[in-house]
Structures are given as structure tokens and as C-alpha cells.
Amino acid sequence: MNEKTVITILDKKRKHEKLTMLTCYDYVMAKLISKDVDMLLVGDSLGNVKLGYENTIPVTVDDIIYHTKAVKRGNSGALIVADMPFMSYEIDVKDAVTNAGRIVKEGGAQVVKIEGGSEVIKQIKAIVDAKIPVMGHLGLTPQAINKLGGFKVQGRNKKDALKLINDAKILQEAGACAIVLEAVPEDLAKKITKALIIPTIGIGAGRYCDGQVLVVYDMLGMFVDFTPKFVKRYGNVGKTIQNAVKNYIDEVKTGKFPEKRNIYI
Ligand code: KIV
To answer: Domain ranges in the chain?
Structure first.
């Protein structure tokens, strides 16, 4: 098995090879996709798409550990990145290192992802010093939804754009191994990508990032509560599931299932 590491990811940027990341929250999905994709993200988007919360705020460190363990069991070769959920790193540096340590030690993640820039830099440095790789997350940071006032494109004006560029540089200096850029104008993402030696992974950040990430249920057409503009559907798995279930119900009702080959004699 060809195990991906943080070094693989940095090398790919150097060689101008595009990186791929998809969210993943369980064993079955990890078995299906981990051989092909570079990184699996146990995102706190599991709050929306797995647990049915309105946003990612209620997700806990224990939720992340539970899902990371399942992903780890199904993984064959992808780098496992897990989100640090809301309030697991903001309060103080000690908490941040303790929680990152649990996600790596108990969950089996190789990298933790943290939302925010200069305001969380002390935490990022301390986690990296504790030998845990950190992926940054800038632009639209869903854990800040109540402060941002909605899911809006970030960095549209000059001041905000400069802060994003500066935050990206500070994250790199602090030891981050990559940065997710979410919902930022394509030109700005391009500038940030050019300014860094670590890779940028875009979601709604245009074509010039070093890699792309999508929520797996969005791209498979399984989560249809809302679909942001940046999502491309590569399948209609939700419909396939509904059709299969209808077929099953029909066959049970009409006595077509079980068939002879499904019974014990
Ligand atoms: O939680 C998540 O799925 C994420 C991606 C949207 C990048 O952070």
C-alpha cells in the first residue's frame, strides 16, 4: 500500500501535481474512496451531513474521534485529516494541544485542521511543536457562521483580501502543512497559492489552488438540503438509493424477494 504523508502532499505542490481531498466519515466510504484520493477529511461538516445539525457548531471532539476511528479502519493509503471542532482550540493553547492529541492518538488522524488565521496562531505553533501536523482553513470558516452572518464569499474588499494573504503567510510560518481556502474569489486564491510553498486546497476558491476538496455527499448527490454554487455533482447516488429501496419494498410485497438462491435448505 502506498501510504500518503504530509511529505507526499508537499512534494505534489513542488511537482505541480494537483491534490485531491474528499470528506469521509465512515468505514464503508473510506473503503470505497481511499485508494484513489490523496486525503480524506473527517470534516466537522459531519454535523450537517451525518448528524442533521443546522451547522457545525454542535460537533464535539468525541464526534470527530468516533468518525475518524471508523475512517481509519477503512483507509488504504490516504492521508487522514480531521477537523478540530468549534471550541476545542479557541480557549487556550493547552486545551488545543490536548484535543489535537486525542484526535491523533485515539482517532488515528495524521493531521488536524483548524479554522482561522492570526487569532489561533499560538495554538497552531504549540500543536506543531507537539509533533502534530496542522492544516489551516481560511476564507469562509463555517465555525464562525454567527460572526460572519451567513455563508458568504470572503475577501472581496481590499482590506479583507490583504488580511487573508497575511494570515496565509503567518500560517505557513507557524508550521501549517497546507491551507484550505473556502469561498474566496479565484484571483485572491491564485495570489495566495503563488505566495506559499505549502499547498492550498480550494473549495469554492477557483481553478488555481494546488488541490480541491468537496463534501463527498454533495459531489455524489446524496445530500440535497442545499447545494452551494461551487459543488459539482459527479453522481446521483441519492436517487440510486431511493430507487433500490423502492424496488426492494416492491419485491418483498409481491413475494419476488427472497428468491430460491437467497434461502437456506
Ligand atoms: O468540514 C468540512 O467538510 C470542511 C470542508 C468544507 C473543507 O471543512
So the answer is: 6-234, 237-265
CA–CA distance, 11 with 6 (Å, rounded to integer): 9
Pocket test residue of 215, 216, 229 for ligand 1, highest count of atoms within 8 A of CB: 215
Active site residues: 182
Cα 199 from Cα 127, distance rounded (Å): 19
CA distance 31 to 161: 39
Nearest CA to ligand 1 atom 1: 43
Place of cell 468518525: 67
What is residue 224's predicted lDDT score, i.e. its pLDDT? 81
Half-sphere exposure of 68 toward its Cβ, with a 13 Å CA cutoff?
Answer: 31
Distance from C-alpha of 26 to C-alpha of 65, rounded to nearest angstrom: 11
Q: How far is the CA of 151 from the centre of ligand 1 (A)?
A: 13
Residues 87, 100: Cα–Cα separation, whole Å: 12
Q: Which of 84, 145, 180, 212 to mutate to test the pocket of ligand 1 (most atoms within 8 A of CB)?
A: 180
Q: How far is CA 264 from CA 156, 248, 255, 258, in A?
A: 65, 20, 17, 11
Q: Which CATH architecture has domain 6-234?
A: Alpha-Beta Barrel (3.20)
Cβ–Cβ under 8 Å, residues 123 and 136 = no
Decide if pLDDT at 189 tops 80: yes
Give pLDDT, residue 1.
Answer: 66
Separation of CA 122 and ligand 1 centre (Å) = 22
Is the CB of residue 82 less than 8 Å from the CB of residue 101?
Answer: no
